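ARCHIVE CARD
Drawer: 12
Card no.: 0347
Subject: one protein chain, sequence and derived structure
Cross-reference: see card 0346
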Amino acid sequence: MTIKAKKILMAVTTDVVSDMRVQKVCHYLNSVSCDVLVIGRILPSTFKKELSFKVKLLKLPFSKGILFYFSYNLVFFFRGLFIKADLIVANDLDTLLPCYILSKLKKCKLVYDSHEYYTESAGLIGKPYKKKIWETIEKWIFPKLNQIITVNESIATIYENKYGKKVSIVRNIPEIFAPKKTKSKEALGINSNSKIILLQGGFIDNDRGGIELIQAMQYVTLDIQLVIIGAGQEIPKMKKLTSELNLTDRILFIPKIPSELLIQYTLNADLGISIDKPTNLNYKFSLPNKLFDYMRAEVPILISNLPELIKIHEKYPFGLILDSHDPTHIATKIESSLNNPNYIEWKSNLSKASKEYTWENELKILKEVYDKVL
């Protein structure tokens, strides 16, 4: 007798084609014979990519703000009413309300995957009314949830203390990907005679250290090139500043690109940058995905003093830590990193760390969660 595949309906407001966490979860669900449909949205930075699961990208009248969230939630809810689902997956708080209501109407299970500490995110700082809306939704639904996942220990501990619910930790570590051949710097359009520092991120927002990093390029030696890969609302400001400081020949901007191409740039980098500023609790307790991309490529990293980064650094020293975001200080740390006597040892530590921090290990926890609902 043929067993029918479980039907999974998933909601996400990020860019599905570049959200590797969503993709990895969907690949796992496919591997256990689930039929996955992801309902996301089209963004200006969305590129074409073949995926192993079904995706419906919505064209919405609004792209940001409360009207966007209202329109996405409304459209997702009414579409979801007519879609058969054995399990619904909500990615982040901005999709949880319609997913929760649909799970009750359809009498099916619900998994909540919180990618960040949403109610303390940068977009809600100084916006008490908007923050209150999301806090109200979270306080109403969170205590009723049974299967909850988040991305690191700090955020899990906050949720557990706040709501008394068990939260599983599945870190956003990339799958092992070894390209058959590493492209040369020339082939990628970067300076073959320069040391390359790399800032990568799917969405480079305010307070990610991008502005200060560009300002720091005034003070580093001329044989250093900065490559910035990603999209986000900070990018136009960063490009404008680059032009104003006459640094266009030393700073290369590349839009969001597929992961298979991104790894080529990472493998050619001499120093990875992860210098988010702890201006809100979401950033303070974050564990940036790019850390693990740099780790995979064994690229030493300059980091800001964030708890989740420091935990890994204390176990496997892999670079230097910023004491401030003053541009001259950042420049000094960049120079010190690239010319550090421990540089080779950092690369060795990253090699060791990459054997511990694997998606295969995270998958064991993910499997435990989904085994309870499939």
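Annotation on reverse: The two ends are 19 Å apart (CA to CA). The chain has 15 helices and 13 strands.
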